[in-house]
Structure formats: structure tokens, C-alpha cells
DNA sequence: CATGAAATGTAACGATTTGTAATATGGGTG
DNA sequence: CACCCATATTACAAATCGTTACATTTCATG
């Protein structure tokens, strides 16, 4: 699996001190959320399987427990735009209107915990600290999205890709001789749709980073970050 | 002032049914938020005056009552990036860590209502519906940010500017002979920093829209949208 | 291990955007 | 009313990214 299931930090960039180990940690929480004593449902999805579609009734909220989920939209011209990737510990589908505003799809094999909206409301009513927790998760998502905005707004292709790899590197706990090992469960097309670049530009950029020794690419799905500093330089300037 | 203080909708695009007329509508709400009977503080800011800076202790949350506030970051290379504009009814400074993750600055003369973090916590504890309201505002902000992401990711300069003008047009209640009148309290530089474009590109694009008759430009700070449909076309395709 | 399909990588070319610089406009002030 | 300064506009050269086309690698399957 992609991310080692250890103590990784949610939405790490630019924010120290925000650590959310998951929405429902105790069995009591899960029972409260799902109702009279039964478990919150567990969902398995294979690669490219949709969890829900834009416009669907927002009946549930999900917590990723394994794998990666991408949130995406299909634009009027047919282009796909990936709004975010969600990793273990992240929640998916928290939204204010009655319907989802985007599609959600499993990138690879994925497991999620399903929580009914009613259960969520119940917990908000019964436990004030739960409301705060939910609010913290929403603001954490806001922070992550702001970083993504910053990434998309004013940067070159090289900076975007570097920023993306850094984000993944910060999540990853895998090491190989001091270097950070980053697995890429998503395709180049996914990365392009996430960064607003074409697949060719993504490919070119990654190749250039390999040539210049910033990263190593033992497989197409695995990046070894030789120098986090140089990667940060590429992400920061120009 | 820019936006007529009427019943405008918050974060309107792509979401019907989310209507938040403001965080603290009743005097009772304000009293509960600010403490023992005194008012929540009111703040006046002139153009280009900062409300708070990135890294400041997040002691307060603000609600814009008049004018426009922009949230921005200064990038390592010195570039400024505007994350969002906030209009009357919007809240500013709601964040999970103890410090703000961005700067906030008044675009023109602006008035805000100040709410202490402690007061906010108190209201969450004492009123479950307030927690839900706050959560709804956070998710509304998420929706708005997702739209902005979509705008930045995969679009041409023309589409970005068209999308931006549409957003402002949807907020505006001013009409002139059937056409929507949009005031631009922000400079071209602001727009560029918001859309990830240079000031020249913004200027060129707006000029082209004027030439092709999509908009009229009686002053540099005022746009009259001749055809919302054609503007939407520009925003949607290519 | 061979095969084929899908994904990825490379290269040349063209379109769009940016950067530079020069000009125009407009609001504020004496 | 004229001047001045900041902002906005326009024109042209240069760089970046997208497009198209093709080669290569990877992986699932026989």
C-alpha cells in the first residue's frame, strides 16, 4: 500500500500542530455515529471505482482508512480536473449543500469507513468537542486547499511538480539510505489533472529532475527524493 | 460601496440552497460571542491596511460588514498571491492552528465585526445549531475555494478573467438597462495575483472583451456585463 | 517466456503567455 | 486649471507550455 499506516501527519504543509489521527477513533464514537449499536459501514473499492458522483445526495461522509481517493470534476469541455487526493485519516464528502459538488474515485484498492449524515448530526448535538473536531478537520482541509491554490496560481510546471512531490514526501515514512521514498499510486495523467498540466509536461519535468539528480526513478510508480532541499528550491523560486 | 448591502448570496457558484445571511444576526448572538453584555468589537480599515499577518496569533475571527478584504501570501520569491477576496457577510480568520496561515488586508475602506476565539468556543459549547452554522460556513468556503481551484487549474487567461467577472456579477445587484454592473474595488494587479496572471495579461484580456462587445468599461473600476451568456461561454470552454 | 495493450517517455513545432518598455489615462493636489 | 504620480493599456520580443507524433517501457495474460 502506498502510505505506511504509521503516524503520518494530515495536511502538514505550513501548519505545525494540526494532528488529527482520524474522525472515529473509539468504538463508542463509531456506535454513536452509526446508530443503535451497529458498526459504521466499511467500504472496499477497486481502482477507478467511483465512491459517489457530483450531484448525488450527500447521505454519507467517508473516512479513508487505506489507499487513496481522488476528488474530481469533469469540465464542460470534457477535461477532468482533480481537486484533491485524500489519504488514510482524511475525510471525504463533508459538504454543506444536500448534494456532493464533485466526484470521488478510488485511485487504487481503497478501504473507507462510512458514516451517515444523521449520525454525524447526532454526534454534533451530543458532544460539543466533536463539533470542534469536525470544524478543525474542515479548517485543515481549507489549509491544504490554500496550499494547493498557492501551488497552482503562480508557478512554473517544474515548481508545481516539485511542490507535489514534496507534499507526498512529507506524508511518506519510507526511507532508503537517508533518502525519502515516495510511492506514486496515481498515474501521470492524474498528476497532470491535479496540477493543471498535460501528461507530457509532467513527464518531461520528472525526467529533467531525474537527469539533474534531484530524484531517482527506479520504477515509474516510485520516486526517491535525493535532495529534499533542492526539490524545495525548485518548488519555491521561479 | 461595492456590493449593495442587500440579500446577496454567499459563495453562490455551483451551489444552490446555501444561504448564510451572516454569522451573528441577533444582538443576543453578539453578546454571547463577545462576553458579558458588551458588543463584539467593530473595526474600520482604510485601503491597503492589514487586518492581520501570516503567523500572528489567531485570537479573533472577523465578519466583513462593508468593503472587501483580500487574503494573501507573499511567496519566497517575493511574489504575492491572493488566495481569496471576502465580501460582506463572509468570515475571515477561521483557522485550526493557533496562528493565521495567511495575511488579510482591506482592499478599500472596510468595516468588520470582531469576534474573539473564546467567544466562538463558548457559542459552540452552548448552542449546537451554532456549531452546525459554523461548519456550514466552513464548507461553503471549501466550495468557493474548489471553484477557484477549478478556475486556476485548467483554463486559459481569457477563461480565468471571465470566470472572475462572472463571480463578481453574481454578487452584484446593480443593474443598468438589463445589464449587470460590476464594480472592481481591486486593482488589475490584485486580479492578476488572484488568477495567477500578470497585470498585462489581465489588462489585455479585459480590453479584448471590451473590443468584442462582451463587456463595457466606462471606468477602469467598473465593468458592465453586456452578455452574461457570452461571458459564461468564455469561462466554460477553451 | 512471449505477446499485446496501456501507460509512459521523448522530440519537434506552434500557440499562448510572459516580460520589457513605452504610452495613455485618471484621480488628487497645489 | 495644470501638474504629478500611480495605475492601466498597448506593442513587440522571448520563453514556456501544449500539441502532435512516435518510441519505449511496463504489466497482465496466454
Describe this structure as you would to a colleague.
The structure is a homodimer of 238-residue chains. Chain A is globular, with a radius of gyration of 18 Å. The first copy, chain A, has helices at residues 27-34, 117-126, 128-153, 157-171, 188-195, 199-211, 228-236, and strands at residues 42-45, 50-52, 60-66, 69-74, 80-86, 91-92, 103-106, 110-116, 175-176, 179-183, 215-219, 222-225. The model of chain A is unreliable at 1-21 and 35-39 (pLDDT under 50). With 238 residues, chain A is of the alpha+beta class. Chain A has 2 domains: 27-152, Jelly Rolls (Sandwich); 156-236, Arc Repressor Mutant, subunit A. In chain A, the strands form 3 sheets. Chain A has a 4-stranded antiparallel sheet with strand order 1-8-3-6. In chain A, strands 2-7-4-5 form a 4-stranded antiparallel sheet. In chain A, helix 1 packs across helix 2 (117-126) and helix 4 packs across helix 7. Helix content of chain A is 37%, strand content 24%. Chain A is built from 7 helices and 12 strands. In chain A, strand 4 (69-74) and strand 5 form a beta hairpin. At the A-B interface, helix 2 and helix 3 of A face helix 2, helix 3 and helix 5 of B. Chain B binds a DNA duplex (30 and 30 nucleotides) through residues 156-157, 187-189, 197-204, 206-207, 219-220.
Tertiary shape of chain A: globular
Strand content of chain A: 15-25%
Helices of chain A, by number, come to 7
Order of helices and strands of chain A: HEEEEEEEEHHHEEHHEEH
User: Looking at this structure, what is the CATH superfamily of the largest domain in chain A?
Assistant: Jelly Rolls
Strand segment count of chain A: 12
Q: List low-pLDDT spans of chain A.
A: 1-21, 35-39
> Which fold does the CATH topology of the largest domain in chain A refer to?
Jelly Rolls
Walk across the major sheet of chain A and give the strand order: 1-8-3-6
**What is the CATH architecture annotation of the largest domain in chain A?**
Sandwich
Oligomer: homodimer
If you compute it from the alpha carbons, what radius of gyration of chain A comes out, rounded to the nearest whole angstrom?
18 Å
Structural class of chain A: alpha+beta
- Tally the structural domains of chain A: 2
Portion of residues within helices of chain A: 25-40%
Amino acid at each position: 500500500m502506498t502510505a505506511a499506516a504509521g503516524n503520518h501527519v494530515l495536511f502538514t504543509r505550513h501548519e505545525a500542530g494540526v494532528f488529527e489521527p482520524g474522525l472515529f477513533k473509539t468504538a463508542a464514537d463509531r456506535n454513536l455515529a452509526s446508530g443503535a449499536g451497529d458498526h459504521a459501514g466499511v467500504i472496499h473499492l477497486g481502482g477507478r471505482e467511483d465512491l459517489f458522483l457530483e450531484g448525488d445526495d450527500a447521505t454519507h461522509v467517508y473516512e479513508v482508512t487505506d489507499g487513496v481517493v481522488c476528488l474530481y470534476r469533469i469540465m464542460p469541455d470534457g477535461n477532468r480536473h482533480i481537486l484533491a487526493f485524500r489519504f488514510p485519516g482524511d475525510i471525504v464528502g463533508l459538504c454543506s449543500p444536500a448534494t456532493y459538488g464533485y466526484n470521488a474515485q478510488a485511485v487504487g484498492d481503497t478501504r473507507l469507513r462510512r458514516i451517515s449524515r444523521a449520525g454525524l448530526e447526532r454526534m454534533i448535538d451530543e458532544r460539543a468537542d466533536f463539533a470542534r473536531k469536525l470544524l478543525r478537520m474542515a479548517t485543515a482541509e481549507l489549509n491544504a486547499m490554500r496550499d494547493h491554490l498557492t501551488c497552482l496560481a503562480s508557478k512554473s510546471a517544474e515548481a508545481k511538480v516539485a511542490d507535489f512531490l514534496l507534499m507526498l514526501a512529507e506524508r511518506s515514512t519510507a526511507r532508503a539510505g537517508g533518502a525519502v521514498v515516495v510511492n506514486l499510486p496515481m498515474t501521470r495523467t492524474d498528476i497532470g489533472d491535479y496540477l493543471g498540466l498535460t501528461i507530457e509536461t509532467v513527464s518531461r519535468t520528472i525526467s529533467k529532475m531525474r537527469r539533474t539528480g534531484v530524484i531517482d526513478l527506479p520504477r515509474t510508480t516510485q520516486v526517491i527524493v535525493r535532495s529534499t532541499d533542492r526539490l524545495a528550491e525548485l518548488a519555491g523560486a521561479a
